[in-house]
């Protein structure tokens, strides 16, 4: 009934309804726990806080979760940083099969789901205590870069708030409570992106955050059409998708400000954020990080997340990977983890007979190197010796340039034995959560 009323309402009333929802969100996020957490972060050494919080977190999970009470029953009473490698690993199927036993509380539960980019959604629970502390850390991160809570903010997320039968080109809504304009990711195609940029110019946000590919698309439109912006953001915070050097450069050129990357997850994994000097840093106040070597300087992460007291994640195999500046020793400390770049899903790679794994970070620059005006690209592998390349191009003549350069550009990454099939498409398909996947690996 509520959705029906919303869908049939005029846009100005939808803005009011979203703002009323914003009041609920505000109370949920900006409570006493938010204030306490932000104050703690501003005063504390994160590594000291990590050591203290890990012991408290493990103790809490043992006491309040039936699953962890049993899973950790054979381990010593006081578990510290140096003991973590001995504990059992938690995988996604453990959560799916045992969620009711893992959860630590029965009241004020908020049901959440991951986007299902790997093909299977994951349901878990959180509550206002966890959410507010997590938001406090995000605001703490943004504050380091000059962005304060309450400033005008443009956000691009995965929520559906544009009715399917809408005729107008207004693909955004306003949350007056949070001083925020919300842009739809589901309508941000080439034909509509100009309207997004026009609204940005009208709203004049102090910061922009959200799905990387949509911010990138806005930036491309601004640069290609030499649009003069009437505002300059303090900072931009892309999320949800891999940020490459090319994407960062395009966004910074368009908006005239710095881009600061961050890593988190729907489940509540500890943060990895970018500092003012451009270095990626773990955030020890939010969790404990373990690195499992894959190859070279590529490591898969196992995380223990302090902001998941409702569905505790202890040694969680999240499925994401990072590239480090240098290999870790066997007895590495948390401060030894120096991250060069975020890779994302450890399945975000394709395979080559000659070169082995080709990660998405190595494919991100292909569109630029192929030449022509490529708007979007995606690489799909169903067979070991064949890569399907879906491309969205602006003009017919771009195709000749692309096909001329194709083998030279791709053979550097895959060798001589791989075949390539180019499909020119109107748009690249998105995941259920509205994200665009650069690589799709369907090999078994």
TrEMBL record:
Alphabetized UniProt keyword annotations: Ligase
Signal peptide limits: none
Domain of life: Bacteria
Matches recorded under Gene3D superfamilies: N-terminal domain of ligase-like (3.40.50.12780)
Keyword Ligase attributed: yes
One MF term in the entry's GO annotations: ligase activity
PANTHER family: CAPSULAR POLYSACCHARIDE BIOSYNTHESIS PROTEIN (PTHR36932)
Protein name as catalogued: Phenylacetate--CoA ligase family protein
Lineage: Bacteria, Bacillati, Bacillota, Bacilli, Bacillales
